[in-house]
Amino acid sequence: MNIKKWLLVPVCALLLVACGNDDSTTKENTGSVNDGENATTSNAVDHSIKDKTEDEKNDVTKSEKSAVSEETSEDDQAIGFEMVDGKTKAATNVPAEEEKALRQAFDEYIAALNAEDIERYSKTLSKNPTGFDMEEDVEYQKLNFENFDIKHTAKDVNVVQYNEKEAQLLAQITVEVELDNGEPFKQAARTNTVFVKEDGKWLVTRVAAIGEKME
């Protein structure tokens, strides 16, 4: 199942990736969100990131201590986090005030999605994002808000990388949405949200999701 296709808006919303949906894909896929809901899902998705191969995913699962990163363009920085014995390793160099600010920024990002408030949501995004197109992202979320009642829930939130200009938060995100046939659709993904500091505020510049679980 290709989440970039229009018929899978709820899945895209789950991964917090509203971008990466080109116009041709949107026009070609106008069916119900129920179409293909049981097809094969992609293993790793973000606004513009490449899918991971099955071998790469297995390497991450089996490694007791591994660094997981996604290749980006020369202008973009890599997204990654470190795991030890299957558990996420939190960054140890984060000042208390900055960690509080980052968590508040992340909470506001999720709250804006749940409130389906496009203006509020827009304010959580970087003015110069590296992982998505700002205008396309906002327009895509408008369609999500107009067509679906989607609830996002985050848990196990940790700051996994930090410097004064950029930080990464890893969280388990679950999305719930009711399909056209009235059936509930739930999906969870480990999501890496990258923030940059602009004018003293932490704003979202890139989002990557690794692994999906449908219920």
Automatic annotation (TrEMBL):
Residue spans with biased composition (Polar residues)?
27-45
Give a yes or no for keyword Repeat in this entry.
no
Region described as Disordered: 24-76
- Report the SUPFAM superfamilies cross-referenced here: NTF2-like (SSF54427)
User: Known Pfam families for this protein?
Assistant: DUF4440
The yes or no answer to whether the keyword Transferase is present is: no
Feature: compositional bias, Basic and acidic residues: 47-68
Per UniProt, the keywords (alphabetical) are: Signal
Its source organism is Viridibacillus arenosi FSL R5-213
Name of the protein: DUF4440 domain-containing protein
Record-linked PROSITE patterns? PROKAR_LIPOPROTEIN
Signal peptide (residue range): 1-20
Q: Where is the DUF4440 domain?
A: 102-203
